[in-house]
Amino acid sequence: MTAELPAEAAEGGAESQGPNCQMLLNRLGEITGIQDPSFLHAALKAANGDLTDAVNFLTEERVKEPGQEAVAVEPSDCEGSAVGKERRTNVIDLTPDSKDDLQAVIALSLLEVQAVERDANRAHKANAAENKNRSKRKRCEVWGENPKQNDWRRVDDWPVGMKNIGNTCWFSAVIQSLFQLPEFRRLVLSYSLPQSMLENCRSRSEKRNIAFMQELQYLFALMLGTHRKFVDPTASLELLKGAFKSADEQQQDVSEVTHKLLDWLEDAFQLSVNVNSPPDKSENPMVQLFYGTFLTEGVHEGNTFSKIETFGQYPLQVNGYRNLNECLEGAMVEREIEPLPSDQSVKYGQERWFTKLPPVLTFELSRFEFNQSLGQPEKIHNKLEFPQIIYMDRYLYSSKEIIQRKREETRKLRKQIAILQQKLERYMKYGSGPSRFPLPDMLQYVLEFASTKLPLVVPSAQDSQMMPAQSPAECCGLNEPLQQNSVLETESTENTEGAASTLINPPSQQELMSKLPQPSRLPAEMPECPAPRVVTEEEMSLVRTCLQRWRSEIEQDIQDLKDCITRINQSIGQMYGDPVLRQVPYRLHAVLVHEGQANAGHYWAYIYDQPRKNWLKYNDISVTESSWEELERDSYGGLKNASAYCLMYINDKLSHLVADDDDDAETGQFQKEVELLPPELQNYIQEDNWRLEQEVEEWEQEQSCKIPQIEPSATSESQDFTSESGPDQSSGCEHRIRSLSSEHARIAKDQTAQAIANTADAYEKNGIEAALYEAFHEEYSRLYLLAKETPTPHNDPRLQHVLIYFLQNNAPKQVVERTLLEQFADRNLSYDERSISIMQVARAKLKEIGPDDVNMEEYKKWHEDYSSFRKVSVYLLTGLELYQNRKYQEALTYLVYAYQSNTSLLMKGPNRGVDESLIALYRRKCLLKLNDMAAALFVSSAEADVLEGINILNELIIPCMHLIINNDISKDDLDAIEIMRNRWCSYLGQEDMDANLQMKLGELLPRLLDCSAEVIILKEPPKIRPNSPYDLCSRFAAVMESIHGTAPLTVK
Fold it and tell me: Which residues form the USP domain (predicted)?
């Protein structure tokens, strides 16, 4: 065991009596079991403040020649074993009078520490070997082993997620959006071809399309009837990936993949159409569901043209537009169809009109463009709003005449707005110079200047003595021309006489001052604010009247212009609000979102669940409830790197596309569809569910064969003071209750002993029970007052005593009283006859308390909460100490675990845990430090450093980021995560970066940007003993003082 002494403590050795020294004394006492402060201080002084040397100094003789009893216990054999703990407790007597046994305990403690260190080294070597073989974890192996298979069971009819098998989140987003269309789902699941056609199929592409359709059928069947929480799309993806020349591990362009997927589906359905009729694409169900037509009309060089085209996913530009309607308007009208001034007969431009809209209308938002200067693609992060209901009447050919009239009206109104804006700008940017200001403000400034009066300043006597006497002419500046002439004459004389005369007869100070031009007024006499020197009442009245009238007139003109612009904008906004143009509503069904940059990122989908009437977020294996507000935040763009790239609308009048007419309940829809499946697909679902049960059974058998790791607890270390209570209290639950409560009593032993010492008079005069009664009530009163005190940044009273924690959290009176009575029944209070007598009376009264008097289950929970509170406090303090010593990797583990444990406490009440903002602040600081460290190692290009940087990212940063995002995230945490992500995204496409590093970066970024697909299982940091009786309060004070000295932090 090693400990680093802070700089201020190291300089003074153990002589310092500050909080750091006290903290070292507490640790030394905890390790060695020695409670004598003078003994500990002497050892620390002899070791010059080094904790390790102090421990060696105290145990050197015993470690060299360990006692027979201590050697008989092998730490590796009994570590984590309750039996081993009990055997050590029976062998060694912990009485202060037995020095040999004390030394044996110390030696045994050191052996335990050495065993822990050996295990830690072995684990570190194993991790290093594992990391050498792989640089990226599997998705379910973050900070722990695979979770229980039971945790992956599906709940009722809740939609299932989809496994990401390596940069395949785009497939999940697209397939989930299509699957949630009941009509499309039925088409896929009912797809079949005659056996003769299957046998006669010769084309390679046809065979591939049929195979893909069959795999999609199996996938859809599982998504309907599986008992798993998510499905594996590997078989379908392998076929789809085979059509691309790029490597499997690289993320495909989602638009290209979606087009390819729809083409394959269209070709596969065309085969089934050709069976019963001649080849006709209009009969293809995919064409009927997803494809529409539009008419393009225009004039080119005086020649009119017209053509009809088919579209599937309609592309829309994002740049330069604020909302979806503006995008559509820009796409439908390319240049105005107007005559050129030179030739009134020649017109240019074109318009598009939808002649047939598909039931499922998909808009592809172009959020990527190629940057010619950089030579690489870039993502467009502009904000683009879109509605939940969009009316397509204004883009239909059937509405052409009325829409053209409204577009002409809109064009004229926009011209009026442009003219009004120019007029308004002349008022708001007034002036002829480079700097221009609003005209009303300028008039107001002139009025303020004219209204400012010069203050009447009466010089003081001291100022009169310091200022030289001046004549009236000098004060008024009448002598200024004369002074200027004198200066010119002096300069002329000096030029004629030459430099030699100046050196021989240097001018005096008074002569030099007289040559300088004299101001009309001294600076001391200048007014503090600019003001007119002379202004008459008549002038002031005239100026004020004119300026105020002009300003009012100008303000009225500006307001009239603004009101006019507002009215015109409202007219434009209501231009298409005519009920005639609201006959073709399309409702938003799905939003496909991309987060990241052009070269890499993460995809997920928001899909409206019609039976449940709310939005769901489909993020790989995770399917969670969402809201329109969350969808807006993630999809509109402009705020962060996430934005929508595809919008899927459905005709709101075709309800059968999104839900069955008889499906009124939220559940049961999928089960009904499973019952209608062909027998082959039903059997496939049953086989997969049977395999799930087999996997669960095998996993449980594997777990039962493992030897559980039992955390050393205080149960075997503390004596059971209620062992005489009879067999009714010997159950495991009661044993656990007595263990925690007795441990908390042992923590407060010194305070209880002081309370007993204060009852000497009552004990002598009135007997034992009177003394117990007085000690009980005095101690209760003291703790009650402490609980009411306002905590300070350096002091948390809850660490002092369990009852302060109970009182601050309004624990039941029975729990408080029994806990305090157990304080006086602690066997460790056997100091003298009075203490022993009071302890025995208290133990007798404890026996009188029955189950009807105190709810023991509730009693246990309160003590468990206090134990967890102290545990969180120690985790926090340990993390802060490690952070101060720049051990950021170790610190992050403690801080993350402290935050997670503290969150469960705070759910029960605001005073149940520690300050959440303090943990979050230093967790955030650790993350940023580690991210900088990992990034610096990554770009160093040295193989070992690159591997270390990737490991830091995979093992610490990414899991912690996902934990933060999957909980209620604060703005500070969100900003920090954006900073870290942007740091890594900035390396994309760097010319000076090695191609191998770019490939590794492409593997890392999807996990870095994927916020919720991974299952986080926290690995608990090294074991601690939060119930140790040493003074945790002094350690808290020292750490708080330290962080206050290094960071501008306020601890509530």
Answer: 160-652
